[in-house]
Amino acid sequence: MDGTSEDKPGYNKIRFCGERAKLDGYRFFWVDTCYIDKSNAVELQRAINSMFRWYQNAVKCYVYLSDVSTRQRKASDRLSEHTWESAFRSSRWFTRGWTLQELLAPGPDSVEFFSYEGDRLGDKRTLEQQIHKITGITITALRGTPLSQFDVDDRFLWAENRQTTHEEDKAYSLFGIFDIQIPMLYGEGRDKAFKRLREEIDKPLKGLDYLPFAADAPFNSFDLQDDLTCLPNTRVDLLQEIYGWADGQDEHCIFWLNGLAGTGKSTIARTVARRYFKEERLGASFFFSRGGGDLSHAGKFFTSIAVQLANNVPSLRQYIYDAITKRKDVASQSLRDQWCQLILRPLLRLGSSSSPSSYVLIVDALDKCDKEEHIWIILQLLAEARTLKTVRLRVFLTSRPEIPIRHGFYQIPDANHQDFILHNISPSIVNHDISIFLQYSLNFIAGERSLGAGWPGEQIVKRLAYDASGLFIWAATACRFIREGKRFAAKRLDTILQGSGSAVTAPEKHLDEIYTTVLKHSITPEYTDKEKEESYCTLRYILGSIALLFSPLSIYSLRRLLRVTKEDFDQTLEDLHSVLNIPKDQNRPLRLHHPSFRDFLLNNDRCKNPNFWVDEKQAHQTLADSYMQLMSTSLKQDICGLNTPSILFLKEHLLHWLEALGWMQKVSNGIYAIASLESIAAVYECPRLSEFVHDTKRFVLYNRPAIEQAPLQTYCSALIFAPVISVVRKQFKYYVPQ
């Protein structure tokens, strides 16, 4: 050195760094401003892509603040002690784009701040409150929590007001913050640089599109938003036990809450899910539902869990994306392979520094999964959560105490699960909680209908709570029935009280009585016998179809399927809001409020009135006939009317059906239906049908991604790439595009 550099702005920083490193006993030091050859594009690219890692691995990171002096006095008080806090808060270092990674990459004890004179001001830990106020960066990020744990928009916000010399550097300086590497293209401008950065950040999210997802599975899905959670001061001891388990660290990785139908299991599950969602510790939730389409089987169970985990746990997102990239067909693999590749292995890759270190998975009504063998497999796989060491996955599971569930838990060591039998809670506690619910609901009705304060009175509430026999669904159905009476609400309450005898009967009997009362009330007494019979027939026809549908339909679609006029349909359902969730929007799904109503309708030992009992076999046949008639008149080529001229469309219904499923994003339902048909063909020994259906299943499984992403490819690439010996290809060989 010839001494001519001493007057340059960066000289003092280099001199200070060397002296301080020597004082701290280090043999080497590195300064970013002079050890990167910015004229060499390759070296510059390498340095910027590596810089975050260099800072992260540094033993010490010295921050030399040339605009902060420890010798200056407060202008307002020349006799006061020396101070630097004000200058520290306004230092240019906190406004530069590239210094964000210098602040966040090293550990909290590694970053040390020094004044212009070389005096130590403190480190990132001792100054975290001041730094937090200056930068807006959350304390946990300053303390070393992996940045992948923080929302993408929050990380962008940390850099929003920072400045760089080159406009593109505002984006390039964030490579390390988001752990990505892309080429630098100086001259592209700020907007294009940020666009490329955002596209790279969003790649894992786009990768999730390969995974089939049950949209109604999460506890807070749009169609479940009206479902209740536990009221304050109800289920107090039980919820405390559940929260204690979820927050604990013992080997009980599964909490099994089992109880009879209508005892409030799903309400408790939603309450638990809501709590941990607010605490940002809810990994995922899946609420099974018989007759709920994707919610009634395990086909989308683990893929839906994986998608939610990727969205709720940012640090998992890249690992799940890696699994999808490695095996794009993972969704069509076995449940075990889906669990291992999409959930267990990504969780195992999480480091011990991940925060929080425990997540809760909610699985409600597992008994409503349609196949017993899938229930057993799911239980066995979820129990493997105990193998996780650096992060805990606590599985809260509810179900009725059905044989498949009990058998599944027999195979799991007692040390790995904690059980609670809901219907064994003391009747006095249950009645107390039901009384609170009734009082809350009836007070609301009294306010709506101006029935006066205190209506209907403490004794009536006690009577209703007694009649509920421990079933929350009885109380909920009764309150809905009363409320739907509007100006006749008080009379409907009297109807319920008159219909409930004082004799002690099984809880299920009381539930059957309230369902019978609701159904009787839906038929006008003034009808003639002939009109009543017609009304009963229409009622059974519509309710039976709703109860048996594999996937809920909207009011409009169901009307069209059953060929019932709008007037007849609306009048039939007009007084059934207490048992049916009837949306105002006729394009939304029509659902049962509770599966126990389905059980009641289809069981003639419970539904003793022949006017309401639904013959399941006959109802299935009627539905099948309606479907066949609708498809024969509605299915056609290019069902969405795109009229793409370059594709030779086919006229056979199989391909039309697959196209329709593709547009509806319901190809998984089609695969399920084909598998069921294959089983039926095998039972009835139909070799030609079996051969065709088996090949159809292979055809759909192989081409599923194409059909889901571009349904019209059903007629094109799906056939072209089918094997020459394929039965499906032979069937439609004249329609393969030339």
TrEMBL record:
Keywords: Repeat. InterPro entries: NPHP3-like_N, P-loop_NTPase, WH_TANC1/2. Residues 563-642 form the TANC1/2-like winged helix domain. Residues 241-400 form the Nephrocystin 3-like N-terminal domain. Gene3D superfamilies: P-loop containing nucleotide triphosphate hydrolases. It holds the Pfam family WHD_TANC1. The keyword Repeat applies. It comes from the Eukaryota. The keyword Repeat applies. This is HET-domain-containing protein. It comes from Hyaloscypha variabilis (strain UAMH 11265 / GT02V1 / F).
